[in-house]
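Case 383 in the screening queue. Each case pairs one protein sequence with one candidate compound; here the compound is pyridoxal-5'-phosphate. For every case the pipeline is the same: read the inputs, emit a complex structure as tokens, and attach any notable structural observations.

Predict complex for case 383.
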Amino acid sequence: MDLTDYRERFPILAKTTYLISHSLGPMPAQAERRLAEYAESWNTRGIRAWEEGWWELPITVGDQVARLIGAPPRSTVMHQNVTIAEAVVLSCFQFDGERKRIVYEEENFPSVRYLQQAQRARGAEIVVCRDEEAIVEAIDERTLLVPISHVIFKTGRIQDVEPIIRRAHEVGAYVVLDAYQSVGTVPLDVTALGVDFATGGSVKWLCGGPGAAWLYVRPDLAGRLEPSLVGWQAHARPFAFEPELEYAEGAARFLTGTPNVPALYAATAGYEIIEEIGVERIRANSLRQTELFMRLLDEAGFEVVTPRKPERRGGSVVVRTPGFEAAHAELKARDILCDLRPDVGLRFGPHFFNTDAEIELAASALKEIVGRGARLSAPARGG
Ligand SMILES: Cc1ncc(COP(=O)(O)O)c(C=O)c1O
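Case 383 output:
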């Protein structure tokens, strides 16, 4: 199948130029059918639905994500969002000894930053670094955790995470990799990287919709950790309703309470398409299209913020133009969907289903709008 043949699986593509998969990937038509299946199982199977698949969804859907990130089965579990996944990881650690530093970078996604900062109340010392070189330098024997991003959300820059993981492991610290902006468009192999924890969601490049995030825990580590943010899904025998906690084996012990069943039904439709195409193929097309986009933006005389080097460029193209807030509103009025970050510029996220003609349309519309001196302004939404 040609990549553009997949367009018919996403109804919104018939009506919009959808260049915003770094924020909210489009809904596969199959997701609607999955939600209908969910309703049908609730309606016809009732309570029996729990034992017929619902209860296991955080594990079975996690296994699907595991295949996309190079992780073994039973190493990845589903949560509601990345913030909760990272909170479960944090809950495994105390910040009262010599080793109580969290070293992170200033370009982490704000929700993750806020959560890490809040650990000060538990005794954590926070060290904020400018970039990956600064992180490597800052990590020492006092470091407990290193929460970093694979791809920086504002600029689409791929970080060189290997030296960070190597340095963290040298001193006995753990790395938590936020791969929300990479998985689905940039290949990731958590096993090859040897990273301790990885997390991400479904809203963006995976086209899985909100409410379904994943957490990978390195298999040899999972059994040694005991999260204190825990619930009955993490128990070895949840349906024995035992009075005392006994952790389940593996990543299951990183679960909490009742899963977000409808979101997990919906999410699988997007994952299946990504798996069917393969991230390597998506990546090859993404590199070609982001290159094309950057060339057109260069020709229009705009400042491209996205890294030029393919090995550092994620799936997005970020560009700064005069009056870009107003340009964003005008593009939206023309059903050309992108977003903006006030201190950076416009973000475009082409995905496997976009045509080159759509890239050309967006670039020429932007050139024309900026050339005319657009003046409106619009608030930013979404991550
Ligand atoms: C890198 C990154 N991490 C995390 C998030 C979101 O975190 P959460 O799932 O907690 O809303 C986003 C965007 O929404 C993001 O771009």
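Case 383 observations:
- The pocket of pyridoxal-5'-phosphate is lined by residues 81-83, 109, 111-112, 149, 153, 178, 180-181, 201, 213, 383 (CB under 6 Å).
- The first helix runs from residue 29 to 45.
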